Amino acid sequence: MSALLEVRGVSKEFPVGGVLSGKTIKAVNETSFTIGENGPEIFTIIGESGSGKTTLARMILGLEHPSAGEISFEGKPVTHASGQERLAFMAKVQPVFQNPFEAFNPLKRVDRYLASTAKRFLKLRGKVEIDAAMDGALQKVGLSLTEVRGRFPHELSGGQLQRVAIARALIPNPPLLIADEPVSMVDASLRMAIVNLLRQLRDEMGVSVIYITHDLATAYYISDRLIIMQRGNVVEMGPARAVLDAPEHPYSRLLKASVLSDADAGHGRLQPAADLLLLSDRTIGQMGRLVDRPDGRKVLQYG
């Protein structure tokens, strides 16, 4: 089975200190992976702010052009797609953003977003057909057109609005969703509902998901495979349970050590071990290569 998405040696540099300075910073460095080669999956990109995970997602969506490398979808290069090719790609690769209240204009009724998506990507014009497409997508996320028709974003809860955002993305029946921190702006009680919905989309609809997060707990629960990024570099990648159960790279170990555990309750151990901080900092800026491990993961090694 061929890969749904292939990212090959992709890098992204941004100028710093002004255009005339000639200085750049590499936000993403020679990153490669595939999605959906063995069927629908949830592929997670983990990293702290500034790790490059959102820049990588923007390049996949075509919102940023890579400085080097190539991105292909269904075997076709999409890095410089335009016109009808770009529109066809957008129908098949849909985004779900972090803050649903920023994704919707507060002065615009949410069903208008759904209707415009049905018109643009499905070429529907009749009211009955458009309503059916909207309601069908909303039903997939546990809502209905009756519940949201005529309502403004502020009239819905954060969880409802995020589900509307996912429904809008599902209208063109895309094989790939890119969900950038989709649960970080909703209440903790609603996070599992959104995460379970993404799993349901994979299992019942055959949709692959690129799940972008800094939250190891939801990543552990939802992911089939993952990559961990530090300052633009992939430091570890592979099967989610193998990587997160026993991370090898110092930065991966630091991330896991930074997750609060109930075993530490009452002991005041809120900071990760100092030696992990030191080891992780020492790897920044070093040249390395990803090395295969017997359990299927790859780990960045230096020297």
Write the layout of secondary structure elements.
Blueprint: E1 5-16, E2 23-35, E3 42-46, H1 53-61, E4 68-73, E5 76-77, H2 83-92, E6 93-96, H3 100-103, H4 110-122, H5 127-140, H6 145-148, H7 158-170, E7 176-180, H8 188-205, E8 208-213, H9 216-222, E9 225-230, E10 233-239, H10 240-245, H11 250-257, H12 274-283, E11 288-292, E12 298-302
Parallel strand pairs: 3-8, 3-9, 6-7, 7-8
Antiparallel strand pairs: 1-2, 1-4, 4-5, 9-10, 10-12, 11-12
Helix pairs in contact: 4-5, 4-7, 5-7, 11-12
Write a concise keyword list for the protein shown above:
303 residues; alpha/beta; Rossmann fold; 8-stranded mixed beta sheet; 4-stranded antiparallel beta sheet; 12 strands
Write up this protein.
This protein is of the alpha/beta class and 303 residues long. It has a single domain, classed as Rossmann fold (3-Layer(aba) Sandwich). It has 12 helices and 12 strands. The protein has helices at residues 53-61, 83-92, 100-103, 110-122, 127-140, 145-148, 158-170, 188-205, 216-222, 240-245, 250-257, 274-283; strands at residues 5-16, 23-35, 42-46, 68-73, 76-77, 93-96, 176-180, 208-213, 225-230, 233-239, 288-292, 298-302. It has an 8-stranded mixed β-sheet with strand order 6-7-8-3-9-10-12-11, with helices on both faces. A hairpin with a 2-residue loop joins strand 9 and strand 10 (233-239). Helix 4 crosses helix 5 (127-140) and helix 4 runs parallel beside helix 7 (158-170). It is globular and about 65 Å long. The protein starts with a strand and ends with a strand. The mean pLDDT is 88.
